[in-house]
Design goal:
Length: 871
């Protein structure tokens, strides 16, 4: 389970939540006053404190909009949160350049609509939104609340339907005092036009995948926020401008825009216009001796605090304390650093009366200009934040920030600081900390430690930890305990636990109990229950029924069902269907599906497509199955050198079957001694396939007793093919009756080759009818070699028509029967066809001695015919 970050996470301790609430109540009153002052509106209350939106709506006739501006009166977009640019022609905002999304945006904007622009910082969201509403609704009033409480006031007094409510930086409205869905719906019902902006990273944090490991309070906050954004038409706006947008910017009359267009390949135009790059350059240049090295160190401290997860303003005292380390790393006193007051003055000085490197937020509280941390992150040459910044962020800020810092430390591969952050949370009784400590320990296979932390997280109230504890216990070999915790989590609706418990029962083949359990899941999580039902029927080889359930799961939106659906279709030999399902599973992020998809392409004969899939998967990181399967594919394509390199790569990673399969390939290309050494090494490692292959090799080399020693070790695995080999060895030892018993045992296990071997044994004993029945049974089981034996059987009995029928089928199945078909052609007098078939046998390296015998006979017949024609 992946750790996540939550903005506005209220924490898990009651005293913290209580303090936060008290502060926020005071903020509501202040925001309301500021709103009235900004719009010149008098709101009359019937008593102390704020009234509900409904109460305010009832007194709407007392309110006035006379001083609220209309959009056509709003000339300066900077007043609406748009980043100002360097001054030119006595203005701070550049000419607007039409964006590619403008047409869609204008179509969506209408009375009673809510449109949300989402993108990276300084991607142009606010400017695009401002220009759109100003152009489409010039006569509308524009209301700009600061939070959810002020939004309620807007809805309450703005009874007219010609109003635009401006929700720039929507995340400000999603934490207390938040924007309620009730007020939002009321605003839309009255015909308001709502337009908002939101950073992509904030929108991403609303994803359900980030709920895992968080408190119930945090999840409620995120779900409430999702309910707000779900009502919006969302349009994404890219930081990088499209080609046509850049061309339009290059034709602008504004020199600032034209200049920005020349840097479009490196920066977004809106981002560049926001003076970010110039500020970044000045910060880097300030390190030079005698310039502003102390100021640069202060900015570095502020930037790195933001990089590690401190998104709130930081104090002057903290920046002064941290900046010494940056100075020392760069040269200390040798840089001739300026006095501390001068350093702050330089860092706070606006660039062209716009942004500054440090942004003042309150008395002696600052934050770094938002462009700078992103610029540092993009610079691959930049170092990570120093250790004292990580430690300070964990120790000196709130538990919520420590939580975020822990996640950032994980991403930055600073596990020691992630542990410190989570330990602080765990000691404070916050189960998120214990959960993530368990997660980190489990990732490093410290299972006892993971178990300890997950149990503590459960005691602290974590539900999600129950499933994770089950997975740790399962990995520790304590399956029954694991099943208990999977059951506990399943009863609380954890879909992952349902799947884990289902897998546990299916592995034990407790099918009836599994069916009852999956039926009980139908009400709680129907799509998961249907997925599990499909997997149950796959386990029982009931592939039609499995496909029925899995298609229902897919129809319910369960994308995890695509992969097992592909398995069911492949088992039914519906290769085209399996190809489609595996392809969809790959698109949905199932890494295992790529192997299966390539396997289907191999079965369909699309070897190049299969190779492309394997290689694409390799580019995404080493996958031991992909390496091995690609090696097998290349061996099949007779690209032996490439295949050998990949096989040896698999061997180095410890892949179980790599030595065996490399040995088989080396044997095929004549490197017999190397092959035998590899087989013996693999057999010594415990590879039962290698043991069986080594047994067959010893049998063919005339050493059935050593073959018996190896097959005895392999046969305990229960594979039917190993029983067939045991039968062949017993024949070689001179015990045909024992061989027959092993062949029948192998046939009971589904081995078609055993039916062929037993048929051949019966034929040699003179039991021809029994042999023919066994060959036919093997054909029904899909065995191509049985076709060879049937063709030969009828050929020896001079039933040439039947012989030809089976030999043609055997040839299509890849059997070496060209020489027998050549004999039949000679019997028919078709010497040209006979010659072609013998040439084909030679090309296929058919070692049957009959090939040369038939060739000599054909030569004699052709010579005799030539002499006869001459006479």
């Amino acid at each position: 389970m992946r750790p996540s970050e939550l903005w506005g996470d209220p924490g898990a301790e009651d005293d913290i939540a209580g303090a936060s609430t008290a502060t926020q109540s005071a903020d509501i009153h202040d925001h309301g006053t500021a709103f009235q002052q900004r719009h010149g509106i008098q709101i009359y209350y019937g008593g102390q404190g704020s009234k509900s939106p409904q109460a305010l709506a009832n007194t709407a006739h007392l309110l006035t909009l006379d001083t609220v501006p209309r959009l056509q009166q709003c000339e300066n977009p900077v007043n609406f949160g748009i980043h100002p640019a360097a001054s030119w022609d006595e203005n701070q905002y550049p000419d607007y350049v039409r964006r590619d999304i403008d047409e869609d945006l204008h179509a969506l904007l209408r009375p009673g609509s809510f449109v949300l622009l989402v993108g990276d910082p300084t991607s142009g969201k606010s400017r695009t939104a401002f220009e759109a509403v100003k152009e489409k609704f010039p006569d509308y009033y524009i209301l700009r609340p600061e939070d959810g409480a002020e939004f309620d006031e807007c809805v309450a007094f703005a009874a007219s339907d010609n109003k635009v409510i401006w929700l720039d930086d929507l995340d400000r409205f999603l934490s207390h005092p938040g924007l309620s869905t009730g007020s939002l719906d009321e605003a839309l019902r009255t015909g308001a036009v709502l337009i908002g902006t939101m950073r992509a990273e904030q929108m991403d944090m609303l994803s359900p995948r980030y709920e895992r490991g968080h408190s119930q309070q945090s999840r409620v906050l995120v779900r409430s926020a999702r309910a707000v954004t779900a009502r919006a038409h969302i349009i994404y706006i890219d930081r990088r401008w499209g080609d046509q947008e850049v061309k339009r910017a290059g034709r602008s009359a504004d020199p600032r825009v034209r200049d920005a267009s020349r840097h479009a390949a490196e920066y977004g135009i809106a981002e560049y216009l926001a003076a970010g790059p110039q500020l970044y350059l000045e910060w880097q240049n300030a390190w030079a001796p005698g310039l502003h090295p102390r100021g640069a160190a202060l900015v570095s401290a502020a930037v790195d605090l933001q990089r590690v997860g401190v998104q709130e303003p930081v104090s002057r005292e903290l920046l002064e304390r941290l900046h010494d380390n940056y100075l020392g790393q760069r040269g200390g006193i040798r840089l001739r650093p300026e006095p501390i007051l001068d350093a702050f003055h330089w860092a706070l000085e606006p660039l062209h009366a716009t942004s500054s490197l440090l942004i003042p937020v309150a008395d002696d509280m600052f934050r770094a200009f938002e462009y700078l941390p992103a610029a540092v992150a993009r610079d691959k040459r930049s170092d990570g934040p120093p250790d004292d910044v990580w430690a300070t962020a964990i120790e000196d800020f709130s538990l919520e920030i420590a939580h975020t810092v822990g996640h950032r430390a994980e991403k930055a591969r600073k596990p020691e600081f992630a542990v410190k952050a989570y330990e602080r949370l765990a000691k404070a009784g916050v189960h998120d900390g214990s959960f993530h400590l368990g997660y980190l320990a489990a990732q490093e296979d410290r299972l006892e430690e993971a178990e300890y932390w997950y149990r503590q997280a459960i005691a602290q109230g974590s539900r999600v930890s129950k499933n994770n504890l089950g997975t740790v216990l399962m990995r520790s070999g304590r399956e029954d305990e694991a099943a208990y915790w999977f059951g506990e989590a399943s009863r609380e609706g954890d879909s992952r636990a349902m799947r884990n418990l289902g897998g546990y029962l299916l592995n034990l083949k407790q099918f009836d109990e599994a069916r009852d359990l999956f039926t009980s899941f139908m009400e709680k999580s129907p799509s998961v229950a249907k997925l599990l039902m499909g997997q149950l029927h796959i386990s029982r080889s009931e592939y039609d029924t499995a496909e029925y359930w899995l298609r229902q799961a897919v129809d319910d939106g369960n994308d995890d069902a695509w992969f097992p659906l592909g398995i069911a279709q492949e088992k039914r030999n519906d290769l085209e269907g399996a190809l489609c399902s595996y392809g969809r599973a790959v698109k949905e992020g199932n890494k295992r599906a790529a192997n299966n998809l390539a396997g289907i392409q191999r079965k369909l004969g699309n070897l190049d497509e299969a190779e492309a899939i394997y290689r694409s998967r390799l580019e995404q990181g080493d996958d031991e199955y992909v390496v091995f399967n690609l090696a097998n594919l290349l061996a099949e394509m007779r690209r032996y050198e490439e295949a050998e390199a990949l096989y040896r790569r698999s061997i180095e990673t410890g892949f179980e079957y790599a030595k065996n399969d490399l040995a088989l390939m080396l044997d095929e290309i004549g490197r017999s001694d190397e092959a035998e050494n590899l087989l013996r090494a693999a057999a010594a490692d415990g590879d039962t396939q290698a043991m069986a292959n080594l047994a067959a090799r010893c049998r063919r080399q005339g050493d059935p007793r050593e073959a018996l020693s190896w097959i005895n070790r392999a046969i305990s695995s229960g594979k039917a093919g190993y029983c067939t080999e045991m039968g062949l060895i017993q024949e070689a030892l001179g015990f045909p009756n024992r061989a027959m018993l092993w062949y029948r045992r192998a046939m009971d296990g589904g081995s078609s080759s055993a039916a062929v071997a037993l048929g051949y044994l019966q034929e040699r004993k003179g039991k021809y009818k029994a042999a023919r029945k066994l060959y036919l049974k093997a054909v029904d089981m899909g065995d191509g070699h049985a076709l060879y034996h049937l063709g030969q059987y009828y050929l020896f009995r001079n039933a040439l028509g039947e012989a030809r029928k089976y030999l043609v089928q055997a040839r299509e199945a890849g059997e070496s029967v060209s020489h027998m078909l050549a004999y039949l052609s000679m019997r028919d007098g078709d010497l040209v066809q006979a010659r072609q078939l013998l040439d084909e046998a030679a090309a296929n390296e058919d070692q049957d001695p009959m090939v040369e015998t038939l060739r000599r006979m054909l030569d004699q017949v052709e010579a005799h015919m030539a002499n006869h024609e001459h006479c």
